[in-house]
Amino acid sequence: MKNGVGQPVTRKEDPKFLMGRGRYVDDIDLPDLAYGFVLRSIHANAKIRSINTSEAKALPGVIGILTGDDYVSDGLGVIHAEINPNLLKGEAIQYPHAALVREYVKCVGAPVAFVVAETQSIAKDAAEIIEIDYEILESATDLSKVRSGNTPIVWEGMKSNVSFTYGMGDAEKVAAAFSDSAHIVKSTVVNNRITTNAMEPRCSIGIFEPGEEKFTLYSSNQRPNNARQAIANEIFEISEAQLRVISPDVGGGFGMKGSFYGEDVLVLWAARKYSRPIKWNSERSESFVTDSHARDVISDCEMSFDADGKVTGLRVHADYNIGAYVAPGGSISPMWFTLLLSGVYRIPAVEVVTRCHFTNTISTAPYRGAGRPESAFILERLMDMASNQLNIDPIEIRRKNLITSDEMPYQTALMFSYDSGEFIEIMDEAVKEANWSEFEERKKESESKGKLRGIGLACYLEGAAPFNERMEIRFDSGGTVTVVAGTHSHGQGHETIYSQMVSDFLGVPYESVHLVQGDTDKVPMGRGTVGSRSITVGGSALRLASDEVIEKGKKIAGHLLEVSPEDIEFNNGTFSVAGTDKSIDITEIAKRSHTPVMWPGELGMGLEGVGVFQSGPGNFPNGCQIAEVEVDAETGKVTLENMVIVGDVGTVINPLLLGGQIHGGLTQGIGQALFEDVVYEKNGGQLLSASFQDYTMPRADDLPFYDITSHPVPTKQNPLGVKGAGETGTVGAPPAVLNAVINALQSKGVTDIEMPATPEKIWLALRKAA
Amino acid sequence: MDVELIINGEEKTASIPPETTLLKLLREEFYLTGAKTGCDVGDCGACTVLVDGEAVNSCLMLAGQLQGRSVETIEGLANLEDFHPLQKNFEDLGSLQCGFCGPGMILSAKQLLEENPEPTKQEIQDAIAGNLCRCTGYTKIVEAVADAAKEMREEP
After folding, report:
1. CB–CB of A617/A630 below 8 Å?
2. What CATH superfamily is the domain A15-137+199-252+257-290?
């Protein structure tokens, strides 16, 4: 079927974007628009003795200046995170934060005052002359020091910096496995701090209609219904009907825009206070300082093996840096990390303890992968270390321990049970694609040019598709179709994918399907797009909505064709009476369903269906990535020569768009492995990597073309057989690349390199080993 | 100050404060929002437009420098019925995702193809290395530029 499921259909969204007609929040201009600028803390930890805004307020063009005291006196609520009670060990301590702080600043970038003015430059000028008297306190920003306990306490009155601890598994069973083991591989694995850098900086516009007492928020957000729920109920204590949240085109989210931010509150609050629409647009340096960061976890890991090289136990004691204020999504990465530490392996006993620490840094929260890359990195580094220590080939040691397809469904020693997967077959396919068997020849060739060469693999799995989802299909009286989606596309191409699906399910022309999303006045409920969930959960809900349309259509067809609905069959857009040539097209049914008079009440008005799909345990996309690198020992520079990925994302709906998802994910993973690093000054707590000059983003000339193969094993967890696709690239790439780099350096005596594997680190490691 | 310039083939004038950048002039005076503010300091390329045929970061250029010069933005490149080969090939390969970097990326590529109709993969990668994209990993963008170059050579 043309444009149907499985076809490489080009994107419906593209003509708009290719002509520069995308409409992102900053592209929206409104009459009487005023501008907000956030004055932020320049200290990592300080007491605010006083704030003097009088001179700034007098500046011509300044409309008003708001501080934390105003926030409290206006009675606005605070922002907090949900901690998963099923994983929580002991007590969770949060310091829910206001959109403007008072008394203390706990990280560089903490919002101290909101200046509203006629123009952005006036607002900035005014912010510069606000006088703040700080009493500077000692700060704790470095996780390696924080986990050892040798740093100041971030929140006064706490005994340690631990906010909450997640735990899972069986410590006694692991201890028993360790005492019976033939080998134990031990390592402290560092997963460095990175930041999202969506190309569109965060942007918000707040509007307040005093007549209707209704707020409108335009925000670059992945989950507008969630933002409405939280901001209405917890911040303003108004009914959700009094807040409309619109997420128009969003220029990349990657999880970082998955929750609302304080600035969303500030523009709404100021709009009400000053009776003007207010825009706040993050500057790039501000994005670096205030967008939630990600990863930043150090883990003490031990993996035990029997004499045959089979894993018998795993212990991971991890420390996450969650920043000074727990972000709304701040507990999500530690949760996925904790739950997924069995990965693709048969590990009889696992114990995970994940301590989450306050530090004087900005919050960490989900970024593409969210905990899954961190767990996969540990398992794949340990496998390579075991390969060396036990002297077993890296492919063979994995083969001994990978869960086989005939062991499915496989119950891990942690929570999850995997329904499907062909991990060994996928590894073998990747090994073949990468031409691993001839690696030694390529290595010799590199050596003849004076270069080192390495190859590394990573077998990995991730958990996808959280929460339930609602999708609605509505036919209008002309017969065209609108999908009202609870998900939110911000680059993924949902309008294309959903059109393919509806066209397939209902036999309507692909072109006749339109998407409504990202507006809480139009989408009654939905959970937005995070966690590789849209096509799996949203798509399955769309299937159910289609089934409801067909059931209603049968009743209408029965009425029109004067037979019982049970005698109606539906096939590819046509309702027909079984065993006759009497039939009626779905488009005609849709038109007739809008008949205003002489229409049976039980047939309703119009043709529509609502589907809600509960994803249950979700699904487990998986794959194998193989990286091959050349390292210049003189400079330490790594060149990524080849990148192979064989992936199982279940049934493929659109291979063209899937390719894009994999490419993007891979690049973000490679970015962390080789280039990207958020660096805070060790003592003062200043963010040193706060521009694209200091934070290295992957650029077009840094990367090879990727070799991508699909190995679909449809899941039974949803009616479509699809698994999540958005995050797999990011999960496997860091360990594959690091394993390759370390493999290249091994002959020179280097056994470990922390991410990112920059020329400086490699050069120093080579000198140290020599 | 006043500035007279040509934007997408049309003569335009604007009265603006002297610190106005070309990017602000386009976005705020003429509502041409295809050029994006990605960093405002010339690091990301999202604001790329062509000035007298040359790709520039419009966030780094003052509008006052544009007196009498010609600016081409993504809005001037084509319409729905008549895509430029770059736009057509970007569409065919699904080269864009969120779309934010697209206008700048396409205009950087346009300058490349005007100067070098048969670029190598490396030359394409170099030409767009100043345009950051977080979604795509660049592969499909580089492929689309190569395909567009081929198409333009075959059907000039």
Report:
1. no
2. Aldehyde oxidase/xanthine dehydrogenase, a/b hammerhead (3.90.1170.50)
CA B10 to chain A, closest CA, distance in angstroms equals: 18
pLDDT digits over A335-355, tens only?
999 999 999 999 999 999 999
Residue of A1 and A121 predicted with greater confidence: A121
The average pLDDT across A79-86 equals 94
Same domain, B68 and B94: no
Q: Look at residue B78 and tell me whether its pLDDT is greater than 80.
A: no
CATH assignment, A467-614: 3.30.365.10
- What is the C-alpha to C-alpha distance for residues A640 and A764, in angstroms, rounded to an integer? 20
Q: Are A372 and A409 in contact (CB under 8 A)?
A: no
Residue B87: the pLDDT is: 97
The two structure tokens encoding residue B101: 């970097």
Point out the residue among B33, B91, B94 whose CB comes nearest to the CB of A27: B33
**CB–CB contact A284 B128 (8 Å):** no
Q: Mean pLDDT score of chain A, rounded to an integer?
A: 97
Q: Assess whether B104 and B54 both reside in one domain.
A: no
**C-alpha–C-alpha distance, residues A322 and A572, integer Å:** 51
B26 DSSP assignment: I
Per the structure, the complete domain to which residue B9 belongs is given by 2-76
Using a CB-CB cut-off of 8 Å, the residues of chain A touching B98 are 198-200, 249-252, 490-491
Task: Read off the pLDDT of residues A558-600 as tens digits, 9 standing for 90 and up.
Answer: 999 999 999 999 999 999 999 999 999 999 999 999 999 999 9
Please state the rounded mean pLDDT for residues A615-635: 96
For chains A and B, count residue pairs whose Cβ atoms are closer than 8 Å: 177
Q: Quick check: A639 contacting B, CB < 8 Å?
A: no
- Domain positions in chain A are 15-137+199-252+257-290, 293-465+617-769, 467-614
Of A490, A660, A697, which is closest to B136 when you measure between CB atoms? A660
CB neighbour list of residue A320: distance below 8 Å, 6 or more residues apart:
A296, A297, A333, A334, A337, A354, A355, A356, A357, A364
CB-neighbour burial class of residue A55 (10 A; exposed 0-12, middle 13-18, buried 19+): exposed
Mean pLDDT of the A698-711 span:
94
**Does A21 contact chain B (CB < 8 Å)?**
yes
Task: Inspect the interface and report whether the beta carbons of A199 and B46 lie closer than 8 Å.
Answer: yes
Give Cβ neighbours of residue A722 (< 8 Å, ≥ 6 apart): A535, A536, A539, A540, A619, A649, A650, A651, A652, A653, A714, A715
- Backbone phi and psi for residue B21, each to the nearest 5 degrees, phi listed first: -85, 165
* B92/chain A closest Cα distance in angstroms: 6
For A428-474, the pLDDT digits (tens) are 999 999 999 999 999 999 999 999 999 999 999 999 999 999 999 99
Q: Flag whether residue A198 sits within 8 Å of chain B, measured between CB atoms.
A: yes
Say if CB A117 and CB A34 are below 8 A apart.
Answer: yes
The total number of structural domains that make up chain B: 2
Residue B123 has pLDDT above 70, yes or no: yes
Say which amino acid occupies A126.
A
Flag if A19 and B98 touch (Cβ within 8 Å): no
**B94 in A contact zone (CB under 8 Å):** yes
Per-residue pLDDT band for B80 (boundaries 50, 70, 90) equals: low
Fold designation for A293-465+617-769: Aldehyde Oxidoreductase; domain 4 (3.30.365)
Say if residues A635 and A758 touch (Cβ distance below 8 Å): no
Neighbouring residues of A713: CB distance < 8 A, sequence distance ≥ 6 = A405, A420, A421, A422, A648, A650
Report the residue from A20, A121, A660 with minimal CB separation from B73: A20
Q: How far is B42 from chain A (nearest CA, A)?
A: 9
- State the pLDDT at residue A1: 73
Closest-CA distance, B156 to chain A, in angstroms, reads 21
What is the DSSP code string of B108-146? HHHHHHHH-SS--HHHHHHHTTTS--SSS-SHHHHHHHH
